[in-house]
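Flavin-binding protein
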Amino acid sequence: MARAMFDNFDDIRGDIVARLTRAVTDRNSPLHTPVVTTADANARVMVLRAFSAEDWTLRFHTDIRSPKCAMIGAGAPVGVLGYDRAAKLQLRLRGRGRIETDTALVQQAWAESTNYARRCYLGDGPGALSDAPTSGLPDWAEGIQPTDEQVMPARENFAVLLVELASLDWFILMHDGHVRAQFTRREGGDWQGRWVVP
């Protein structure tokens, strides 16, 4: 990748949009499963379910019983880290996260999920202790795609994590010199960029 390809902020922001957009539907994209961190320094890998380039919002699915949901609640800082090894590109994103459980967006996300995915919200909540290795699923749900009726109880545990991005840090390793740019979102919604020493 030539250094000249990324010598202005518009091209870099465009690259970020393209990567996040692709990551939503491409399971092979390295950004499909970024690391998400909360203010208590807990980090976990999550699946990126949606990205809106219009309002710069990321969407993840989660279990309302997860400790991160209590930590984030209606609004708290969230960091998202992705690394594309082939491109040698690191993307660090920060924003304000919030948990939604009973909105039209959550209903839509639930409706678009398969019963196989919905079954993950059955059984014990994340972090529950067990005497033996376990998926947390009820025995009857292991390895099957349940019916709509069977997964109905899981809906009350399903939630959405939305992260409205406020800052972007784009860092690419290149043989002829690394390049790093940072962006801060201003009050009107546009981005102000600056070059940073890697």
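thats it. The chain has one domain: 3-108+158-195. The chain is about 20% helix and 35% strand. bye
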